[in-house]
Fold these 2 entries.
Entry 1:
Amino acid sequence: MILDVLLDAALDCLKDLPFLFFAFLILEALEHHTSDWMNRTLSGAGNFGPAVGSLLGCVPQCGFSIMASDFYAGGVISLGTLLAVFLSTSDEALVIMMSNPGHLEDIGRLIGTKIVIALIAGYVVLFAGKAWKRRHPGRDKEIEDLCRNCGCHDEEGGILKPALHHTGEVLLFLFIFTFALNLLLELIGMENVSRLLLADTFIQPVLASLIGLIPNCAASVILTELYLDGVISFGSAVAGLCSAAGLGLAVLFRINRNRKENLLITALLLAIAIAAGLVLQAVM
């Protein structure tokens, strides 16, 4: 069992390796080869961020949520864009639905619903954040924050070495984290996790959202399978898959230095997922 869990953790991390490296390479390039004005322009172009983020998040791969966490920690994208990516990310859900020909109609409904939720929540948070900053001006995030006191830069100032350094650092963290989480889920048993969702219909979206927070593809797999089997409602499935941001949350907690902010983002993600699930539960 230990060997199987180790192999699964290694495969999961290798799958996300290109996204991690590409994100850090972009961040290093921005830090080294663009002016402060360009960085502020990229960060301020967030009016399109939630729209783009909600579409990219639909791709059945949690790599985009990892990249979004990197970019947010470096101040390149807004909180609204980050949440839009997290909310629209479905990880393995679409792949599972595509492999079930009898449920292909659910794909469009699920994608459309999650895009609408991501767009609405992303823009509400984006404009609320801008209003907050106008009343409470403060220091914005900077790409340099990711490299402060890390010792990865040399006098040459190249981008490859620090990008590899940060990629390796985060990849090691993800491997250890994923291995521990997979082992825990193996010991607990997915059947016991599934049993939690057989509770009363009203609290299903809440339980599904909590399970979705598990930063592992197992969460999206079990939620999708239970929905296809008719065990949980569409509202509960959407709630769980909205909070299922893959490894994006784990990476955010690793590289974003503001722990209170990370907890706030998690609470926002959970609250939006629960609210969306309850609304859908009431109207459908």
Entry 2:
Amino acid sequence: MIPSEEELDRALCLRHGPEVHATIKSATVGIAGLGGLGSNIAAMLTRTGVSHLIIADFDSVDISNINRQNYSLRQLGSAKVSATDENLKAINPYMTIEKHHVKLTPSNIPDVFGRCGIVCEAFDVASEKAMLINTLLEKCPKTKIVSGSGLAGYGRSNDIRTKKLLADLYMCGDDIDMKGVKGGLMSPRVNVCAGHAANMVISLLMKEDL
């Protein structure tokens, strides 16, 4: 039996304490890109109690995604925003998810994420990462950005760290270029980095900085 909204809220409140839970629940967090990082960040934030997410991705679930992204085989071919919505609502059916099945550009990023206090950058391509970060810094100056980069291969989990690069920009990763890394993108290190990003989001919501 699925618990009521009040029961779920009470359980999270008992876990985190009233003040922490209220702060996390009231936040609006954006996630740009729903691949290995973004789909797992979304699940972690949902489990922690964030109840309003704005998610954006133009892609669909492919069989090559299954090794590290938070999707199942039955979701192959589904838009990632729809599959993510389904997965998150299975965790918390009472949360609000605003879905944008679009390719993010400098012209639409402010409209999509302008209401977010924090946005997680979770793109795969370096040029798109830079575009999103630069656009948010320029057009959404009150928004904090948590970005991910450098998480391929296996081993070296302790090399993945969170650093503050600018006043409102945080980077999670190991600073190692994927070229020459054995194993490609794998679920364990991708999830370690996603955990860093989700933890940084929660820390920022609770006014804890690096």
